[in-house]
Amino acid sequence: MHDLTARSTALRPLLEAPGEAGVFLDFDGTLAEITDDPADAEPLDGAVPAVEALAERYARVGVLSGRPVSFLQRFFGGSLLLAGLDGLEVVQGAQRREHPSGGVWREVVDDVAAVSRARGPEGMRVESKGISLTLHFRGRPDIEGAVREWAQQQARRSGLCWRPARMSVELHPPIPADRGTAVLELAAGLGTVCFVGDDHADLRAFDALDELEGTGVRVARVAVRSSGEAAGLEERADVVLDGPREVLALIEHLCDHPRG
Fold first, then answer.
1. Higher pLDDT, 130 or 22
2. How far apart are CA 202 and CA 199, in angstroms?
3. What is the pLDDT of residue 228?
4. Is residue 190's pLDDT more than 90?
5. What is the DSSP letter of 99?
6. Is 103-172 in the same CATH topology as 5-99+177-256?
7. 3-state class (DSSP) for residue 160
8. Backbone φ and ψ of 168, nearest 5°
9. In this structure, what is the dihedral angle of CA atoms 208, 227, 225, 89, given to the nearest 10 degrees?
């Protein structure tokens, strides 16, 4: 693993003032290893208590994912911010909020999911998430073109918007909500913000960090190398880690470093 101390220029603002800092992390490929079936993904051993310890030290800690909040709640407790469906759902403690325009798209998503299962490309896995869905070609890279074409057809038919993702294509309501807008919302009022992620959606989180940096907020962009890593993510990062195990080491470093 690269020496984290040698990268302290990017991490120093977090370490110096944890009470004014926020740390936000992606789930798949960041806190969990990539699996052939997304339903099988689980946090790395030790990741949950490490993130919870992080939340005790830093002003705001959250997991931001394209997963539904209900999936994240299987692993993470009430001390953390959980932003699901790239910000369309947010849970903090006992409070849960959903984007006010999200619910009207549930029937549309259900329809597209049903049609995709019945008539979509053979070998495509359909993952419905309530107010969004993901069409996977993970394990079947030979059908990538067919899945992308199908997703674009369904987007035109339904009014949903399509986005590239890791070995998949996502279909979302036409609502201005993504991992970047989620970061901007959840980081409001913080003096330092760190985001850790590994895929296409995390590029939008890096865009949000750029915007925050322009307003005087100190930021740390952490990219995680994983299968299907987004082009350009590593080049934009302040720190690059080799997989979830190094993410866990980073979390432990942020927790264990003495204040000041």
1. 22
2. 5
3. 55
4. yes
5. -
6. no
7. coil
8. -165, 175
9. 30
Sequence ranges of the domains in the chain: 5-99+177-256, 103-172
Angle at 34 between CA 224 and CA 143, to 5 degrees: 110
Phi first, then psi: give them for residue 56, nearest 5 degrees.
Answer: -75, -20
106-128 tens-digit pLDDT: 999 999 999 999 999 999 999 99
The verdict on domain 5-99+177-256 having CATH code 3.40.50.1000 is yes
> What confidence tens digit (pLDDT) does each residue in 156-183 have?
999 999 988 888 999 999 988 889 999 9
Give the pLDDT confidence score for residue 152 in this predicted structure. Answer: 97
- The answer to whether domain 103-172 has CATH 3.30.70.1020 is yes
- For 75, residues 6+ apart whose C-beta sits below 8 A from its C-beta are 42, 43, 48
pLDDT exceeds 50 at position 66: yes
CA distance 52 to 80: 7
- Reference 125, options 158, 111, 117; nearest CA is 117
From the list 254, 258, 257, the residue with the least C-alpha distance to 241 is 254
Centroid of chain to Cα 197: 6
Model pLDDT, residue 64? 94
| Complete DSSP assignment for 173-230 | -S-S-SHHHHHHHHTTT-SEEEEEE-SHHHHHHHHHHHHHHHTT-EEEEEEE--TTPP
Indicate the pairing of strand 21-25 with strand 192-197: parallel
